[in-house]
Amino acid sequence: MATAVLTPESVLPKQAKLLINGEFVDAASGKTFETPNPATGETLAVVAEADKEDVDRAVKAARKAFEEGPWSGMNARARGRLLHRFAELVAENAEELATLDTLDNGKPIRETKNVDLPLVIDCLEYYAGWADKIEGETIPVSGPFLNYTLKEPVGVVGQIIPWNFPLLMAAWKLGPALATGCTVVLKPAEQTPLSALRLGELLCEAGFPPGVVNILPGYGPTAGAALASHMDVDKVAFTGSTEIGRLIMEMAAKSNLKKVTLELGGKAPNIVLPDADLDAAVKGAVTGIFFNQGEVCCAGSRLFVEDSIHDEFLNRLKKHAESIQVGNPLDPNTQMGAQVSEEQLERILGYCESGKKDGAKVLTGGERNTAAGSGYFMKPTIFAEVKDSMKIAREEIFGPVVSAIRFSETGDAIQRGNRTSYGLSAAVWTSDVKKAHNIARKLRAGVVWVNTYNVFDAASPFGGYKESGIGRELGKHALANYLETKSVWVAL
Length: 492
Ligand code: NAI
Ligand code: MG
Known about the structure:
Blueprint: H1 8-11, E1 18-20, E2 23-25, E3 32-36, E4 43-48, H2 52-67, H3 69-73, H4 76-92, H5 94-105, H6 109-130, E5 138-139, E6 145-153, E7 156-160, H7 166-180, E8 183-187, H8 194-206, E9 213-215, H9 220-228, E10 235-239, H10 242-254, E11 259-263, E12 269-272, H11 278-290, E13 302-306, H12 307-323, H13 342-357, E14 361-364, E15 381-384, H14 391-394, E16 401-407, H15 410-418, E17 425-429, H16 433-442, E18 447-450, E19 469-470, H17 477-480, E20 483-491
Parallel strand pairs: 7-8, 7-10, 8-9, 10-11, 12-13, 12-17, 13-16, 15-16, 17-18
Antiparallel strand pairs: 1-2, 3-4, 5-6, 6-20, 11-19, 14-15
Helix pairs in contact: 2-9, 4-6, 4-7, 4-8, 5-6, 5-8, 6-7, 11-12
The chain binds 1,4-dihydronicotinamide adenine dinucleotide and magnesium ion.
1,4-dihydronicotinamide adenine dinucleotide binds at residues 160-162, 164, 187, 189-190, 219-221, 224-225, 228, 239-241, 244, 247, 263-265, 297, 347, 396, 398.
């Protein structure tokens, strides 16, 4: 599989400007910011920095495209064709896009190529197929009336996405918004703006009319807040921390009561019962926490292991963790790359210190990985003998750090697994089918994996219970986030 990778020079943009109304332009303020390569700390590109004025211009363009011009009158099938063309262009440029995300985020090229990009393309194709299948209903009301519903796009949508899966999060947001006929102002994370801008070029090339998608790299408290509190944005979709999710809702409430969907943090219980296939469960625990450097909202960060298999399980897990190749993300053999930023690395190291101080046992890792390079590399880390009350068992770490917790009774593990303010995902490992289904029902999470971990499909809903979010992405469920329902009465 070790094919040659594209060189950074061949994929980095010559200019990284804002996409507003079909044109790449400088920020109104003329300001720029640098986006570094987390694997080296070196600057990859200088990027135009959007702020309120740019958000105003982009929202105006999106409003105009929503109300007038080719997009507003386009039939659903033509919309679907545009999305299909966009998906094709993404596929044609997959290698370049994968390399861009690897450079900007620090994640390994084997993952951007083999996981992120295929999921991105699937997602866009999936929603392209939905465009002409969104239907209303006729309702048998009382009286001499015909009553039917129209499903209409909600309007101008602000989308604020994080840095952990830059392209995939853009696809999850753009797919349903464009399939339903909305127009979009998308703000990528300041850590990873490059691939979204490249998507912007491909959207133009695919033939999306000016203003339908506007892309504004910039910071959260400035560009992001301007978008979330804008009076002419009909809906805001956000993925990121629970802390900022709360702010987004507040801004929506205080401005124009725009619709809100939120995809937030998690602290997933990954529960291993003694009758599980241990080989599979160990591999699942590894994927669950070390995939994408642990920068995954649904990471299996609380590993509940039953007493009788506990020591054997952790021994095997430790062996796997220590065999993970950490290093240059562009090397096709690298399995774990760099954390996204120095800030994120420091945050993770802070949690490791807290775990040690609270008396958890470091089975492996627990520190920065200086051998892997000068960038923000972490050692895959396992804490054992973690108690539910410890900070590392309660808070989202968003790094390759798993907290192993003992249990002796399945019911107790489920209860303790559910005892968190989060509810994004959960997993259970057992060879007893009946038990598996019963436990799946009891876990308070939007996604439950049985004898597997971190599987996704564009057709299957993803989202959180409790403080992990509001609404569902993917599948037909995500369409509802971007639609209004109109009830039409006709006297007969
Ligand atoms: P964040 O929530 O601050 O950033 C996510 C997005 O929100 C970015 O585009 C950012 O620019 C924007 N944003 C930030 N402040 C904003 C504001 N006041 N108004 C509008 N938009 C704003 O996340 P951050 O700081 O990058 O990471 C902190 C922690 O958040 C991580 O350690 C992790 O625990 C969690 N996180 C969760 C993610 C998820 O997928 N659920 C993704 C990224 C981070
Ligand atoms: Mg932040």
